[in-house]
Amino acid sequence: MKQIVLSRFDMPWLPITGLIIFTVCFAAYAYWTFKKENKSMYDQASLIPLEDSPVESLVKSSKGEVL
């Protein structure tokens, strides 16, 4: 049944468009993750499991206080 459906599929632009959208979104997310401006945010987030009360550290960081 799958072969019958795929043999009559007459919109090849649809999966190509989906692939292009996926590739663009993946590249944008990868760029956002690895840009140097976000390094301090990821360093701070990596220390959250080691702190005594992570909720207080998040409140302090949102107020702009230095940890």
Could you characterize what this model shows?
The protein is mostly helical and 67 residues long. The chain has a domain at 38-67. Helices cover 69% and strands 0% of the residues. It contains 4 helices and no strands. The longest helix has 22 residues, at 13-34. It is elongated. The mean pLDDT is 82.
Key descriptive features of the protein:
67 residues
The residue-averaged pLDDT reads 82
Morphology:
elongated
Q: Uncertain regions: pLDDT < 50 for 5+ in a row?
A: none
- β-strand number: 0
Counting DSSP H or I runs of 4 or more residues, the number of helices is 4
Radius of gyration: 22 Å
Please describe the biggest sheet, giving its number of strands, its sense, and whether it closes into a barrel.
none
Beta-strand percentage?
under 5%
| Helix and strand sequence | HHHH
Structural class: mainly alpha
* First-last Cα distance: 61 Å
Helix content: 55-70%
What is this structure's SSE topology?
Elements: H1 2-7, H2 13-34, H3 39-46, H4 54-63
Please sum up the structure shown.
This protein has helices at 2-7, 13-34, 39-46, 54-63. It has 67 residues and is mainly α. The chain has a domain at 38-67.
